[in-house]
Design brief:
312 residues, 42% helix, 9 strands, 12 helices, four-stranded parallel sheet, five-stranded mixed sheet
Length: 312
Amino acid sequence: MRRIFLFLLIGLFLSSLLTGCSRSDSLSNMENEKGSGQKKEYLKIISTAPSITETLFEMGLGSRVIAVSDYCVHPKEIEKLPKIGGLYNPNYEAVIALKPDLVIVLKENAEYGKRLQAFGISVLQINQHTINGIFESFRLIGSIIGGEYQKKGEDLERSMRARIENVRSKTKDRKRPSVLISIDRQRGTGQISDVFIAGNNSYFNEILEIAGGMNPAKEMSIAVPVVSVEGIMDLNPDVVIDLATDWNNRLGEKNEKWIALCQKDWMSLDSRIGAVKMERIYAIPEDYATVPGPRVILLIERIAKMLHPECF
């Protein structure tokens, strides 16, 4: 079974190809409310994506979240909240019935927001398909909610940027290995076949640049290409990082077991591949690895330590 977040990632990375409303369009009805002299409080917020949910809780707005997408899993406080569909199967009726003060959508889901606005629902559109976009979303959400949350958004952005600069300063003068990022594949088979990898997309390219690596697939024409064993050999990465988040706590087993199985798959490849020869195969089973939200800093720090352990 393919991981559910694969579809979210593909939608995320294709967002630059989609036409959507601008920031001013997504805020138009909220600005009209403010312009009329009516100060509206956004006390009932609906999140339509995992990254949005995590952002709201990180900013201390969790108590205002009344529903989330089908794919939201973090933090645990959301387990009992109503679900309102996902990126490709939104449940408009459920959203409207909950009478939210505000629905937050991603740029690639702009059409969702437009349909809700037609029902008089306030919609905020944010862009989280780049590192800067993630950080800017903190400020944007904070400024819209207002009060103490404006400062919380600014403080969160400042803290995250400081952590990124700390990583960048430690890795900037280091030799940059080529790093293949595996987003999805059939795992635990003892071999490698077709693999969805990070190709030409700014999100993972930025992460690798900060962490002190480089993406050998960044010149590919699409964001999430599928490569064969022959394609992997052509790329010849120095390091492989497998985002095995579908194995996180599977069957109650410890992650170490699944990481070992994941590594065994990759070690079946030809030893002429640098990552195989040097046994530099890593797996990250934690779910934050595929959610472009505030926990992206954990992914950056994790990868940096994998690539340059001597710096940490």
